[in-house]
């Protein structure tokens, strides 16, 4: 195989190709490991793909992914039993003759289920810091990663390695705006996070909701998305309509003039109705409770709450 063909074959290999390119020597043919006697692996194998005993590979303690679907692992193990390992795992050498996994835990687990004795592995040098960073970045390559898992991993990378959002974007090949949007999900209230995790709403919905600082408004908008099955664009329009609506009369009593006990009542009403309720009270004790609604369907929702 020519060098040009080798380079082409490496394209599209995702994190495997990325990690291999970081070693001293490229992986020439990852599907054909070098047969080095076990006693010589320690001295000769760095930067190469070799067969190593499964019993000598320990998992990465810094692996951010903790849950592995049992059914998917079984399917992968059956495929491995028939076709073998197509893409090697990546490991680093430890001082006691064992290896620590850098990437490929699914393949490692599935190989053990398939009762293999050895596994092809690319051996590279990495200290603890580099290893954890690679594990976190590899975790981000998964297609089934939830938005909240992505946001949590971004935050961990930023905090642990003192990165700016722009620097993180460069490392994970994302724009700074994309990084900011995903990180904003961490500020959402639990009910919206739950709706996102259970796929009641999409990442796009959640990002729009995260732009709003008022938690009662966020919950009201969440209810509209779920009950009216609003698309992301429809939610954006609904938010724009609310912000561009008629201004509150200048004669109305400002919310911040309420005493603390009345503010508590107002907050309880907001939570109960899932709407931006306003409690207005004059010095003589008279006042109003204003409950806005955005559609006939939203009005019916409020009426149901009042009747129960």
What does this structure look like?
The protein has 308 residues and is of the alpha/beta class. Among the domains are: 3-128, Conserved hypothetical protein from pyrococcus furiosus pfu- 392566-001, ParB domain (Alpha-Beta Complex); 255-307, no CATH class. Helices cover 51% and strands 10% of the residues. It has a five-stranded mixed sheet with strand order 1-5-3-4-2, sandwiched between helices. A two-stranded antiparallel sheet has the order 6-7. α6 (128-140) runs antiparallel to α7, α8 crosses α9 and α12 (215-228) packs parallel to α14 (260-273). The longest helix is centred in the middle third of the chain and has 15 residues, at 147-161. The model is unreliable at 1-34, 36-44 and 246-256 (pLDDT under 50).
> Strand-residue fraction?
5-15%
Question: Main beta sheet, described?
Answer: 5 strands, mixed
Binned, the helix content reads: 40-55%
Question: What is the level 1 CATH name of the domain at 3-128?
Answer: Alpha Beta
Total strands: the figure is 7
> Within the CATH hierarchy, at the fold level, what is the topology of the domain at 3-128?
Conserved hypothetical protein from pyrococcus furiosus pfu- 392566-001, ParB domain
Order of helices and strands: HHHEEHEEHEHHHHHHHHHEEH
Question: Largest sheet, order of strands side by side?
Answer: 1-5-3-4-2
Radius of gyration equals: 27 Å
Average pLDDT level: 76
With helices defined by DSSP (H or I, 4 residues minimum), what is the helix count? 15
Uncertain spans, ≥5 residues at pLDDT below 50? 1-34, 36-44, 246-256
